[in-house]
Amino acid sequence: MQYIADSWQRFAACKGPHADLFYPPNTVERREERARREADAKSICAECPVIQECLEHALSIGETYGIWGGKSEVERRVLLDQRNKRMRKLD
Ligand code: SF4
Predict the structure, then answer these.
(1) What is the SS3 assignment for 68?
(2) Structural domain spans, the chain
(3) Which residues of the chain have pLDDT under 50?
(4) Counting CB atoms within 10 angstroms of each CB, which of 16, 57, 80, 83 has the fewest?
(5) Are 49 and 68 spatial neighbours (Cβ–Cβ below 8 Å)?
């Protein structure tokens, strides 16, 4: 969480020394390193009191980078696709 704008973000469990787990490093990251980093980030998300708010925020702004609400960018894309399909069925 880089920018503390919304009130829910004040309660983010990822503030502080863990913040670098949530985004890939500027250097090359091997697949297993990425998997480990993301698993560590998601374990913090799992204990976060604002996980749902965080996920909804990331989905609403189309955040394409990092772990938000316990989901990777790929997982969020899948969620958005599923929601969009459901919405189209309701039309
Ligand atoms: S759900 Fe994860 S990324 Fe979102 S605020 Fe909580 S710890 Fe940070």
Answers:
(1) strand
(2) 7-90
(3) 2
(4) 16
(5) no
